[in-house]
From TrEMBL:
Residues 129-327 form the D-glutamate N-acetyltransferase-like C-terminal domain. InterPro entries: DgcN-like, DgcN-like_C, DgcN-like_N, P-loop_NTPase. It comes from Pseudohoeflea suaedae. This is DUF1611 domain-containing protein. Pfam families: DUF1611, DUF1611_N.
Amino acid sequence: MIIEHPYLIFLGDVPDALAAKTGLGIVDWRPEWCLGQFRLDGCQADANIPELSIAEAKEKGVKTMVVGAVNAGGVLPDHWVKPIVEALDAGLNVATGLHSRLSSIPEIKAAAEKSGAKLHDVRFSDERFATGKGDKRPGKRLLAVGTDCSVGKKYTALALEREMRERGMDADFRATGQTGVFISGRGVAIDAVVADFISGAVEWISPAADPNHWDLIEGQGSLFHPSFAGVSLGLLHGAQPDAFVVCHEPTRTTMRGVKHPLPSIQEVIDMTIALGSRTNPGIKCTGIAVNTAKLGEDEARSMLADLAREYGVPATDPIRFGVTELVDALADI
């Protein structure tokens, strides 16, 4: 799936910023692709980019209107259909990460057929994936893994891509979730792939490459999460990572949405090596990325220093303090 940019970010009338995390994430990492936002009356989220009507967006060269909002159940509200049809009538492609297919809504399907615009449902892929083979392929790969869901795996991989490219390194972010697909313009939402083909889909996302090329692969879930470990394991086997960074949120005691305790960083390292060595015996942990947003700066720096001493690898908050040391640690791989 390749989504044409630049984008118009549609935020609907969501009640808060959390409900617009897809759109806000795109603006955070690909601001040059986002020419404006389109909001309905009552919208309580703001990406702080220009307000554009659909007609204005078309005039400015927008290619795709991205539905950058989420809601419970991942359904498309009825009153969002009209602006989506308006965008299609103007010749804009429309992309969404919701669980309901755009083409399942008659008015939207008819408008797309009439205008010739494309409908992108990033949680669904028309690609037919093979089962994973586990054969070692050229190129270098790093996978972001986590002690839990929503701990910064995507932001860590993107921060690594940015730093590595600034150094002149050959590196690409590889998206495995809906927001990541919008940010990169391509990829596969791994959690929507039939289980037998997850590792094969990751092999497809990160194919054979130049020996010095790095793929920074977005992680999903956690090997310890009772809801999502299956996706995490398939992703690990398909990624065949040479290196992995453990992502962690230090204030949690249980994993999101369940009562199970958070695993320790050491447990995650040990499990990732034990299972990841199935497809890459040379797998190693090269760093720790901690989301310290809920900590004061002194407390955050102290914690990161303690973690670096304890585990013998660099520890940082990629957004707050950068990833210089995480990239330095890849020099010998």
